[in-house]
Amino acid sequence: MTNASPPVAAEAITAADAVRRAARLSVAPMMDWTDRHCRYFHRLMSREALLYTEMVTAPALVRGGAGHLLDFSPEEHPVAVQLGGSDPEELAEATRLCVARGYDEVNLNVGCPSDRVQSGAFGAVLMKSPALVAECLAAMQDAAGGVEVTVKCRIGVDDQEPEEVLPAFLEAVRGAGVRRATIHARKAWLEGLSPKQNRDVPPLDHPLVHRMKAAFADMHLSINGGIATLEAARAHLEAGMDGVMIGRAAYHSPAAVLLGADAEIFGAPGPSPSEHDVARAMLPYIEAHLAGGGRLGDVTRHMLGLFAGRPGARAWRRVLSEGAARPGAGPELVLDALAQVPEEPMVQPQVREA
Description:
Blueprint lengths: L14 H8 L2 E3 L8 H8 L6 E8 H5 L16 E6 L3 H14 L3 E6 L4 H5 L10 H15 L3 E7 L7 H14 L4 E5 L10 H4 L7 H10 L4 E5 L5 H9 L4 E4 L1 H5 L1 H5 L2 H4 L10 H17 L4 H5 L12 H11 L8 H7 L16
Parallel strand pairs: 1-2, 1-8, 2-3, 3-4, 4-5, 5-6, 6-7, 7-8
Helix pairs in contact: 4-6, 6-7, 16-17
């Protein structure tokens, strides 16, 4: 017996319920990766999973007029926007802008360890200021008009003791009225480690995150960090977590993570598309992007891992990466690359029932 959710009729649940259900499996916000082209590509593989934007800073939206950073396609729903910032009023205004654009969730970044976010006093450094985080979240909720506001955090930073810091942080978040959080199960070291090293070097503590779920049973908690397969995601769900967020594996091997997700994680019926189906389904999107003045590589760079682990994957990557920058390159390049990969018969995924 598993705890996979059966399909639910759209009219039977509220918008907030639908997003919470989608959060059973989500693709992490990743700078320079999860842009609108990546999210459209991922959505073709899973109708159900929750997709996140790259982090967008509140100052860029409010003071910089960078509203284009909020652009997305309607097909991406359910889609959440992640904001970075530490000024409650500015975050509130940024939240209003995001809600007006139609995002399904607004998330506050309290986990990014890069120098840029530290200098702006937001990201993981905010783990040291739970009262300020609570103030920011309260202001965001007041501005959200019913759209759920959430937070993504680490288990601690630097010399903090996660067993003490994380419960106190979640208490502050809950006190601000937030009921959904995603916890990256590693500390962030703000000095001495690069952002890349912060994704690998600090040890994972998945058991601590599970203990937080037991201690904060009224909150919807997702676990993130070091989770690379649907099997691992299911194990965390079956152990009691409300959701699982997958990052780099969903980018580098998207088919392995997303093609079976609707059946395996959400209990959704119906066949999953094949990798070839997904590549062909991207062609109209690519044509529209090029017609609007975009470049082929803007889109195809996110597609390089589609056939990871399959015969022909190297040739697929080579044709796309070498050809995308050539003048006049268009959708036919994707077909040329696709011809390098043998098409396998579709296998109907097993639908997991509750």
